[in-house]
Structure formats: C-alpha cells, structure tokens
C-alpha cells in the first residue's frame, strides 16, 4: 500500500470517528434514547455510513438507463434490494 493510500485510510477513520462522536454528543439523541430506556426498552443504535470516494474530475458511471450509478446498484445489492432485471 503506498503512502497516499495509507493517508486516505487515516482520513476515512478520522471521518468515521467524527461522525460517531457527533451522534454520541448530540443532546437531542441522548434525550430521546433516555426517554426510550425510561419506558423499559434497551436501545442499540447501529449506524451505517456508506462513503464513496472519487477523484476530482472522474467520470461517474451509470447503468444503461442512466438513472442509477453502478455504486448505488452495488450498495442496494448489499442491503438485499434487487431489481427485476438483476434476477
């Protein structure tokens, strides 16, 4: 892995940590979770972030119909959302 890949990996980890910290420090989220727990429920908050990196000026590819990118199609497939023509 070259130096630029390592730097990008560090930056992506910093981004993920920052997002997690923003949620954990948000008073509205904390208050809402406290109200739910007060009602007798345990809350596991699981957040998923999908981040796409493209070089500036890179051409975005899309399917033949032009309404959904290959990246979007790949993500939807991973969360088990399929299109008729995918079958």
Rounded to the nearest angstrom, the radius of gyration is: 19 Å
Helix content: 40-55%
End-to-end CA span: 36 Å
Number of strands: 0
The number of domains: 2
Oligomer category:
single chain
Specify the number of helices: 3
How does the major sheet shape up? none
| Tertiary shape | flat
In the predicted model, the low-confidence regions spanning at least 5 consecutive residues are: none
| Mean pLDDT value | 77
Structural class of the helix and strand makeup? Answer: mainly alpha
| Percent of residues in beta strands | under 5%
Order of H and E elements: HHH
Topology:
Elements lengths: L2 H22 L2 H12 L31 H9 L9
Describe the structure.
With 87 residues, the chain is an all-alpha fold. The protein has two domains: 1-49; 52-87, no CATH class. Helix content is 49%, strand content 0%. The protein is built from three helices and no strands. The protein has helices at 3-24, 27-38, 70-78. It is flat and about 50 Å long. The two termini are 36 Å apart. The model has no long low-confidence stretch (mean pLDDT 77).
């Amino acid at each position: 892995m070259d130096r630029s890949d390592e730097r990008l990996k560090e930056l992506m980890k910093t981004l993920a940590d920052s997002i997690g910290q923003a949620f954990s420090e948000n008073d509205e989220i904390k208050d809402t979770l406290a109200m739910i727990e007060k009602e007798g429920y345990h809350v596991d908050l699981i957040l998923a972030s999908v981040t796409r990196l493209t070089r500036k000026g890179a051409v975005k590819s899309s399917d033949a119909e032009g309404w959904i990118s290959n990246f979007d199609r790949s993500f939807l497939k991973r969360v088990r959302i399929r299109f008729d023509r995918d079958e």
